[in-house]
Amino acid sequence: MEQKPGCRASAVCVVVGVRDSLVQTAHDGAGALLPAPVARPILPDKGIGGMRILVVEDEKKTTSYLRKGLTEHGFAVDVAAEGSQGLSCALADAYELLILDVMLPGRDGWFVLRELRRAGKDMPVLILTARDAIHDRVKGLELGADDYLVKPFAFSELLARVRSILRRSAGRTPEQIRVGDLEIDVLRRQATRAGKPLNLTPTEFTILVLLGKHRGEVLARSLIAEHVWNVQPDAGSNVVDVHVRRLRSKVDDPFLQKLVYTVRGAGYVLRAGD
Ligand code: CA
Hints:
Arc Repressor Mutant, subunit A; binds calcium ion
């Protein structure tokens, strides 16, 4: 697979439809999406369950350091090296966190943050910058940043702050999703139907949460793959279908009422009733 140029700014984020025009996405484990025997896991489960972070930073050394470290800790990472591009990415796609440098080519981090909040996007933002002047810290927090980290920093400190921000922001996303008699407890990572626990793997749970957050919307396979594994599946790969089939066998098979539907040529949708 080729390295993708920045994030998928040109792509529409979570919508119904086909994303034929998408660029090939990057993935550290390139090649891992080849069709594989069903008997063993096709891809490793991400520890964080497909949490997506956008890094807007122009220093290549820092971005590769962040990408590597965060990926190793189970996050899906997109990178934009320029302010306007970062803003487009953040506006167009669903990220759990934005790590934002201040000094950027083109539009700076302050502009990005201001425009993001003006557009009503409330994703958490961690400001990352070489500036350590106190007025900059105040400015960042006043503009709606959630935290502030001065370069150079230890990765362990960044990770601790990222986790702390994500814990705090968990309250901003729905904790419970209900579709018919299906209940998804997002924080406790448990799902039940008619009160009976469904024994889902982390990957199945992540897919179910994604479908649940967009219940009633048809989600393309490519979109599911990107959210769960941060990759575009190779043409002909059935990785998403295999995982959805397993998910469906647990969510739907024991019950009369079906919730997970296949929309031919489009993708999957979670909905109660027709
Ligand atoms: Ca910079």
